[in-house]
Amino acid sequence: MKINSIKVAQLAGVSRSTVSRVINNYSNVPPETKEKVLRVIEELGYIPNSSAQVLAGKKSRTIGLFIYGDNNDKNKILDNGLSFGYYLDFINRVLKEALKNDYQLLVDVVNDNDFSKVVSLYSNRDIVGGIFIGFKEKEKNIVKIIEKFSPMVLIDYLLNPKCEKEGIYYINTQDFQGAKEATEHLINLGRKKILHIAGDKEKLSGKEREKGYLNAVNSLGVAPMIYNGDYSDEKAKQIINEILQKNVEFDGVFCANDNMSYCVNNALKEKGIENIPIVGFDNLRNTIPLGLMSVSPDINTLAKKAVELLVCDNLEKEKVSFVKTTLIKGLDEYIKESYLD
Predict the structure, then answer these.
(1) Which residue ranges does UniProt annotate as crossing the membrane (predicted)?
(2) Is residue 267 part of a domain?
(3) Are residues 174 and 212 in contact, defined by beta-carbon separation less than 8 angstroms?
(4) Residue 64, strand partner residues
(5) Contacts of 77 (CB under 8 A, 6+ apart)
(6) Do 308 and 165 fall within a single domain?
(7) Fewest C-beta atoms under 10 Å: which of 115, 172, 271, 284?
(8) pLDDT per residue as tens digits for the range 90-148
(9) Is residue 85 located within the same domain as residue 231?
């Protein structure tokens, strides 16, 4: 037997519209009627159609979290997730904030060929709004999404956005400052030949971290040594092995993310090379215990701000905001600044 709102109405002795008002928690239903309808719903095990509720005017209680990546990124998550670590940590924080606000979280990895999923979720009002992270600047599909839908929060997407549309928000990590501080720390350790294995230069974070590195080395008269790692484990391995094979002299390394710093560290260990300080970015769980340093973005605040911008109607909302970064040099600072809670 098909269970629907008509059957619920018959057994509860009320109209179908009354059942709809109870499901959507309208206030104009007498308490005894509401109790009777809810009892029948429970007895039948009836599950209201969420799309129908949205069409009836009820706001969705699902947040979309969309991460830009390709099929290789999806495979990394299915594999062990380690090289996708920053995003996994961010998902965890967003989920906690969503649950605090009584919302569900839908997570997906999207690429240039499957933006239709995002369009469908917005068009059907299956999500209250979306958080977008890892997207390349001015990528045509994300530009179309911004033009057509709202609300949405874009993480590390544009530094000075010109979009005046209501409901579009930007949160950026202090990538420039964090990279500058990391490089200056290596210089203060007496290092003069500092490698920078850069991130994806089509993304704001990659560009800003390289700028921070350049600002530090140029202001102190240290020659830049930049290699494009593209946030890729494989490229970082290839770069550091080629550098070692060619006997390029260096005495410090700043990597644009922690995963690349792991590759550099492993390569140096295999060659028996010690006493070369390495700084990464993201403060992943394994970085500091491995004896490496890392720039730590405050992703608790990042996640909290992103969720609140979507679900808190009475909040004063900034169009563009920034979250701090902290250089973590050892276990004491790691514990003090830990964002794992």
Answers:
(1) none
(2) yes
(3) no
(4) 106, 130
(5) 84, 88, 109
(6) yes
(7) 271
(8) 999 999 999 999 999 999 988 877 788 898 898 888 899 999 999 988 788 899 899 99
(9) no
Do 184 and 268 belong to one domain? Answer: yes
So what's the pLDDT on residue 80? 47
Residue 277 is part of which domain span? 175-297
Q: Cβ distance 64 to 127 under 8 Å?
A: yes
Q: What is the pLDDT of residues 191-214, one digit of tens each?
A: 999 999 999 999 999 999 999 999
Residue 277 located in a structural domain: yes
Q: Provide φ and ψ at 309, rounded to 5°.
A: -65, -30
How many domains does one find in the chain? 3
Residue 120, both tokens: 């469908």
Q: Is residue 242 assigned to a domain?
A: yes
Structure-block tokens of residue 333: 């600072």
CATH number at residue 90: 3.40.50.2300
Give the helix ranges, DSSP H, for the chain: 5-12, 16-23, 31-44, 50-55, 71-79, 85-100, 116-123, 140-148, 175-188, 204-219, 233-245, 258-270, 299-311, 331-336
